[in-house]
Write a structure and sequence with these properties.
The complex is a heterodimer of chains A (165) and B (291). Chain A is an alpha+beta fold. Chain A has 5 helices and 5 strands; from the N terminus they run E-E-H-E-E-E-H-H-H-H. Chain A folds into 2 domains: 4-79, Beta-grasp domain (Ubiquitin-like (UB roll), Roll); 88-160, Orthogonal Bundle (DNA polymerase, domain 1), CATH 1.10.150.120. A 5-stranded mixed beta sheet of chain A has the order 2-1-5-3-4, sandwiched between helices. The termini of chain A are far apart. By secondary structure, chain B is of the alpha+beta class. Chain B is 32% helix and 25% strand. In chain B, the strands form 4 sheets. Chain B has a 5-stranded antiparallel beta sheet with strand order 4-5-10-6-7, with no helix packed on it. A 4-stranded antiparallel beta sheet of chain B has the order 11-12-13-14. A 3-stranded parallel beta sheet of chain B has the order 1-3-2, with helices on one face. The chains are: A alpha+beta (165), B alpha+beta (291).
Chain lengths: 165, 291
């Protein structure tokens, strides 16, 4: 069966790939582009492990057909750190021990980034709702929630430093 | 399975007419899990998001046009829409996580035809109409006539909904939606209830529509609600006044629920009475602010 040619932007870089029409964006990212940071958990949109940001909108990449990516811009976990500099969320997760096995972590980081992109000063309740679409079977969530709140503070401090510099 | 992304109604209808195995989708949040669950894939998938009419969101000539493929996140962040139809937005915002909200649509929530769909009771309560296109042209049908049973709609092959039209609320009119789930988030309604209430200038109920979800094969309108509530002062919280009891009894009588893992028949009936009273009180409180 012929495959579909798709061009899009992933983490700021133009990319192209061939895919079957039945493939999901998750499968295209992992199997066609080799970006295996995005994980498959349930494959039905319940667990959030496959979270990516599609044209600024948080989605489950397992619920997007790969050909839908044509002309779109996608942010994945691979684009989160800037070179050797971790994103404040990644730093907070490391320092706050917000993960154990790590399978859910890329999805949590992306969901948390989407939340903080829209709302830089979330309350604890807003963080809990913001990551309600992500399941973690190890941590009990508390360390994740605290780490997101901590990252929000760090990001605000960074912004203030940038403004005063 | 072939993926197609038409950019006009004509192109979409032609694609659907060319293949009896074709089907439409918008957000795919119900569709892909069905494939994962073993349901056979169609021979062609027609993505409606590129058809401009499915993406409209505007108020004109006395009604709101809401595109069938507008994602929930766009509806819940639209200030004027939230203010016009707080209940519809409440129902829509309860569909899944933020990830799902970025994709899920009113057209999909309706045509997936789950008895527990959260956006359908408010759409029906608001008297919304679905604009349907197909090979035979265009027709408008009340949303209440689209779903005919679990997983089944009255749409013909090669037909799809482009948009919903919802009358602008009159003075003193507002709506509300509430559902019961055994947790705080990420679940499917055990019972849902929508109410649209219109008050006169003295705050008395002039008109009322109450629609229940998840208690029957399709949404169930509490047909006696208007008669019970007309002329009543509703803005205070439900108390022991007889008409509130009557409303609850009418809600129970409108139910035809099933027993399943989410709730028993008896539980669903009792919750339907409670939620009907609560949503009427909430809609009336909002309606009073709109006098």
């Amino acid at each position: 069966m012929s495959r579909t040619y798709v061009t899009c932007v992933v983490n700021g870089d133009p990319v192209d790939f061939l895919c079957h029409d039945y493939q999901t964006l998750l499968s295209a990212l992992r199997d066609e582009l080799g970006l295996t940071g995005t994980k498959e958990g349930c494959g039905t949109g319940d667990c959030g492990a496959c979270s990516v940001i599609l044209d600024g909108q948080l989605v489950c990449s397992c619920l997007v057909f790969a050909p839908e990516a044509e002309g779109r811009s996608i942010e994945t976990i691979e684009g989160m750190a800037e070179g050797q500099h971790l994103h404040p969320l990644q730093e907070s997760f490391l320092e706050g021990a917000a993960f154990q096995c790590g399978v859910c972590t890329p999805g949590f980081l992306i969901a948390a980034k989407a939340l903080l992109d829209h709302n830089p000063t979330p309350t604890e309740t807003e963080v809990r709702y913001g990551v309600a679409g992500n399941l973690c079977r190890c941590t009990g969530y508390d360390k994740i929630v605290r780490s997101v709140l901590d990252a929000a503070v760090r990001m605000r401090e960074q912004d203030t430093r940038k403004e005063t510099a | 399975m072939k993926y197609q992304a038409p950019t006009s109604i004509e192109e979409a209808v032609a694609l659907l007419s060319s293949d009896p195995g074709a089907r439409v989708f918008a957000g795919a949040t119900d569709l892909i899990p069905q494939f994962q669950g073993g349901r056979p894939e169609p021979s062609m998938l027609v993505d409606l998001k590129g058809v401009p009419q499915t993406g409209v969101l505007e108020c004109q000539n006395g009604y709101w046009r809401v595109g069938a493929a507008v994602p929930a996140a766009r509806l819940t962040s639209h200030r004027e829409l939230v203010s016009a139809f707080p209940g519809l937005v409440e129902g829509t915002s309860l569909i899944g996580s933020d990830q799902i909200q970025g994709r899920a649509t009113l057209g999909g929530n309706l045509c997936n035809a789950s008895p527990a769909a959260d956006s359908v009771p408010p759409l029906v309560a608001l008297g919304a109409t679905a604009v349907i296109v197909g090979a035979a042209g265009r027709r408008s049908v009340p949303v209440s006539e689209i779903v005919i049973g679990p997983g089944a709609t009255s749409l013909h092959h090669a037909e799809f909904i482009t948009e919903f039209r919802i009358p602008v609320p009159a003075r003193g009119c507002s709506d509300a939606y509430e559902r019961f789930i055994p947790r705080t988030e990420m679940d499917i309604a055990v019972v849902g209830a929508a109410a649209r209430i219109r008050l006169d200038d003295q705050g008395r109920c002039r008109d009322a529509t109450v629609v229940l979800g998840a208690v029957a094969p399709t949404v169930a309108e509490v047909s006696a609600a208007a008669e019970i509530l007309r002329g009543r002062q509703l803005a205070e919280a439900p108390n022991c006044k007889a008409f509130w009891e009557e409303l609850g009894e009418a809600a129970v009588a409108s139910c035809n629920p099933i027993d399943d893992k989410r709730g028993t028949v008896q539980f669903r009936r009792r919750v339907a009475a409670v939620l009907a009273r609560r949503t009427v009180a909430t809609a009336a409180r909002r309606a009073k602010e709109a006098i």
